[in-house]
Amino acid sequence: MIAPDPIAFSVFGLKVHWYGILIASALLIGLLIAIKRAPKYGIDPDTILDFFLFMTPAIVIGARLYYVVFNYAYYVAHPGEIIATWDGGLAIHGGIIAGVIVAIILCRVKKIRFMTFADAVIVGLPLGQAIGRWGNFFNQEAYGTQTNLPWAITVNDAALGMIRVHPTFLYESIWDLLVFGCLFFYERKLKKADGELLFVYLGLYSIGRFFIEGLRTDSLMFLGLRTAQLISLLLVIVAGIGLCYLRKNENRFPNSLKINK
After folding, report:
1. Cα dist. 258→70, 79, 113, 116 in Å?
2. In 216-237, which positions are buried (b, 16+ CB within 10 angstroms) versus exposed (e)?
3. pLDDT digit string (tens) for 78-116?
4. Where on this chain does a 1,2-diacyl-sn-glycero-3-phospho-(1'-sn-glycerol) bind (predicted)?
5. For residues 208, 214, 219 and 223, what is the CA-based torsion angle, rounded to 10 degrees?
6. What is the residue-averaged pLDDT of the chain?
7. Buried/exposed code over 4-36 (b: 16+ C-beta within 10 A; e: otherwise)
């Protein structure tokens, strides 16, 4: 399988990239899911709209800033490319950090429990990631090491030319879909307190990302280590601690699904 043209179409000379279309689609689907879920958590759907209004630019900036910081040497030499997000280079961990900051601020302003708000909106995130990852396919980026497996994709590597590699974007897309399903199952069968879905997402996503990142050839590095793997390990620990804390303090974070039945 060879990646198609990254340009979807042009309008009056303006090139529209598949990467942008997929990211926009992911955000729209996440918004619709969150709006549908909001009433179950006692949240006004207009609050969700406010959140996405501020979150959308914030996560793009956060994801890009994270990527640029860990590619500092390159972007110091090519400062004009810092804003070229249409060519890829958005780090999901930077986007998550930015999204959490916006959510915390919004919850303080609107006087909403952060854990309740997080559980209402977090379910759509892995589905959005599953869709957005296909942008890497069109841009021929974020792929893995060489392989002859039947599902390998062919990319034009800058150093090696046309090679067959692991479609790590596909692995993560599939994993994200599984996480999406697991969140719904957990919510219906296992959830005891608000906030648990947030930590389940962080833990499950990070486990998959840790192993998939080990196959990639373009990892962001910090002190000789893969940044995404370090962050993933940290988030797994945070998720475990967070779940334990919520289970021990169920009365402080009551399950909104039972309250708003």
Report:
1. 43, 52, 16, 12
2. beebbeeeeebbbbbbbeebbe
3. 888 888 877 667 888 999 999 999 999 999 999 999 999
4. 133
5. 110
6. 92
7. eebeeeeeeeeeebbbeebbeebbeebbebbbe
Q: In the numeric block, which tokens belong to residue 121?
A: 């909106």
3-state helix, strand, coil in the chain (%, to 5): 65, 10, 25
Instruction: Please name every residue paired with 94 in a beta bridge, in sequence order, or none if there are none.
Output: none
CA-CA distance, 43 to 84, in Å (whole number)?
36
pLDDT at 134 over 80: yes
Least confident range of 79-88, 109-118, 123-132, 235-244? 79-88
In this structure, which amino acid lies at residue 196?
Answer: E
Helix 92-110 crosses helix 114-121 at what angle (to 10 degrees)? 130
- pTM, 2 dp: 0.91
Q: What angle do CA 225, 156, 224 make, to 5 degrees?
A: 10
Distances (CA, A) of 184 to 99, 134, 189, 190: 21, 23, 9, 10
Please give the annotated binding residues, written as ranges: 133
